[in-house]
């Protein structure tokens, strides 16, 4: 991480002569950013905005659906509850890469290919989050609390909204953080489901950009793009910093979520 912070401060022409942790100048940050912006009239900003709103939508949908599903599995008498929990565990074990082809075929059949919603809806599928919420509602919240609320006339929707949700802020933060991390750096699924460059999120767009420059792809030959190792490091920093900021901002809630269910009342 420290190397990513320092590398863009070094001039591209003499980059290799600096020590790995040496600092160049603040001016070089501006030069590296200007070089990134020179690609296709600043399309990097469009990719960044795509990443922001794709990730925000994924986090909201994934967190809300996981908490609701976890509560339903843990605190309601829905049919086939054990079977559904087992299916959730099996889905956690299946590698995501193995699902790309069937998901691509399904998205194409539904007319969602090349649509941002194909990435958002598929990425919001979060069996790990469902299992975390299930464990939380099974262990951290006493079942007597659910029963007392039902005896007082609370409906399932009211019980969920007024009791379960307020008591699940810690686990919700943990689910949201994991969903954010996975969505922000997701490369393969958007690359398969999105065919237009202006629809790419930041990781996919930067991959396309770097594949066109000799800095990472010698086969690019004499390409004149002003993209070198300082620009690559700056792009990596842009991708990594939001994860760090979100982690620091939510660390207290993440700690609360990590210990939720550690002691059963």
Fold and architecture overview:
65% of the residues lie in helices and 0% in strands. The protein is mainly α. The protein has a single domain (25-259), classed as MetI-like fold (Orthogonal Bundle). Helix 3 runs antiparallel to helix 12 and helix 4 (81-93) crosses helix 7 (127-139). The longest helix has 33 residues, at 43-75. The protein starts with a helix and ends in a 6-residue tail after the last helix.
What is this structure, in a nutshell?
It contains 14 helices and no strands. By secondary structure, the chain is mainly alpha-helical.
Key attributes of the depicted protein:
265 residues, 14 helices, 65% helix, elongated, disordered C terminus
CATH architecture: Orthogonal Bundle
**Structural shape:** elongated
CATH topology: MetI-like fold
CATH class: Mainly Alpha
Compute the average pLDDT. Answer: 84
Given the helix and strand composition, which structural class is it?
A: mainly alpha
Q: Tell me what portion of residues adopts beta-strand conformation.
A: under 5%
Oligomer: single chain
Number of DSSP strand runs: 0
Total of DSSP H or I helical runs spanning 4+ residues: 14
Would you identify the regions where 5 or more consecutive residues have pLDDT less than 50? 261-265
Q: Which series of helices and strands comes N to C?
A: HHHHHHHHHHHHHH
Tally of domains: 1
* Straight-line distance between termini: 41 Å
**The CATH fourth-level homologous superfamily:** MetI-like
Helix content: 55-70%
Sheet with the most strands, sense and barrel status? none
Q: What gyration radius follows from the Cα positions, in whole Å?
A: 23 Å
